[in-house]
């Protein structure tokens, strides 16, 4: 690495040249002059690592700089900034730690890695004298990390909620518009470069959970494990749920909800398909777009909407980090970097996770039951035994012979009471499928 005063160019090592890597490479080349003028130094991709050098690509890897050894790229003393765009928490973790231990700057879009190994990664940055930037890890092209970390630094955050997964929003939007099932739609999300290599991370809610963990850490200084959150995806949403939503003035969105009670010092993080009243901003954030609402105690409510996945949106966020990293390399320090001062983020070290008794919401429960006398009465009695108050009940015909669909909504209740109810419902011999539950949002934007 050259010293700040001698620096004529900044060398980038791209580890990963798939959807995101190719986008970053293409836009860095297209914007090279503008970026150089802004930074006073040119940014050059000096090495690229992939798994399979012979794979055909839309943007071919320039042979002279190609490698199939990302660790060698991470360790190369000529490389200033290592962009980890491989995904996963195995080799990607080694690449990031190798670079940080050598005092390099890492830019990553890898939310699974930051969520699962954030402490280790930040510690490696502190100890090695490097830094890690990860804007592209949450909400694609929306600069939500910058907003929380810098723009809204004066605030405490009572609630942050929103749509954080482009693939799920794309699937739900098309299911609503086209009335079809989601298999072909998932295939399209993959083809368009929205989905993770393992799309179950998207569809089962884990990708949203990784992002919610990162936002919780930035806002509240506490790492919440995905096993400590309530996480549900969209796999079991059917046209029955969409039809209910439509007739009662809701849209179904997969929402991450991060709620902080400052009086009791508790934090609750959940990821659930949610019925959102269709007049609200979030209900109208469609396709691959993400939408995040951040409620600050000083600024009030703020909204951020933009493309949450895909090559260009993600490249935009990665390049913003590359530019910040380049400024740091040149000795210009504007940005707050969490790896440097995690204690500043722990705004109150006593914050703890709220128990299921303390988290309250309204809920939607869809049951597929045997169509016979006494079933509805039994369901009502289980809800009464758990002190869950029913708001509405609907019975619909079901395509399964001798079956009926029961759709119930509840008044506000705790997650503990909901869980008790579901456990008892699942023991009913007349229940034909595991219940489907949705949260009912009562936000007002
Ligand atoms: P991708 O298209 O699957 O690309 C992954 C790239 O990494 C490929 O070039 C692959 O090489 C390379 N790679 C993977 N494992 C490797 C290994 N062990 N050694 C060498 N190279 C390896 O994935 P992507 O969609 O670009 O996503 C990359 C990262 O960005 C992930 O962390 C993802 O979560 C994140 N992200 C993606 C998006 C999006 O919209 N796609 C948005 C935000 C964040 P080959 O090409 O040879 O297989
Ligand atoms: N698979 C992710 C999504 C990519 O669909 O949101 C962006 O993080």
Describe the secondary-structure layout.
Layout (H helix, E strand, L loop, with lengths): L8 E7 L3 H12 L1 H8 L2 E8 L16 E2 L2 H6 L5 E4 L6 H11 L3 E4 L2 H18 L2 E3 L10 H8 L5 E7 L2 H13 L4 H9 L8 H4 L2 H15 L9 E2 L7 H9 L2 E12 L4 E12 L11 E8 L3 E8 L3 H19 L12 H4 L6 E2 L6 E11 L4 H11 L4 E8 L5 E8 L2 E2 H12 L9 E5 L5
Parallel strand pairs: 1-2, 1-4, 2-3, 4-5, 5-6, 8-10, 10-13, 10-18
Antiparallel strand pairs: 7-9, 7-11, 9-10, 11-12, 14-16, 14-17, 14-18, 15-16
Helix pairs in contact: 1-12, 4-5, 5-10, 7-8
Name the helicity range: 25-40%
Structural class: alpha/beta
Shape: elongated
Number of domains: 3
| Proportion of beta-strand residues | 25-35%
The CATH superfamily name of the largest domain is NAD(P)-binding Rossmann-like Domain
- Unreliable spans are none
The count of β-strands is: 18
Count of discrete alpha- or pi-helical segments spanning 4 or more residues: 15
CATH architectural category of the largest domain? 3-Layer(aba) Sandwich
Radius of gyration over alpha carbons?
A: 24 Å
Query: Briefly, what CATH class of the largest domain?
Result: Alpha Beta
For the report, how would you describe the main beta sheet?
Answer: 12 strands, mixed
Quaternary status: single chain
Let me know the average pLDDT.
94
CATH topology of the largest domain, what is it called?
Rossmann fold
Question: Span from first to last CA?
Answer: 49 Å
Which ligands does the model contain, each kind named once? Answer: NADP nicotinamide-adenine-dinucleotide phosphate, L-homoserine
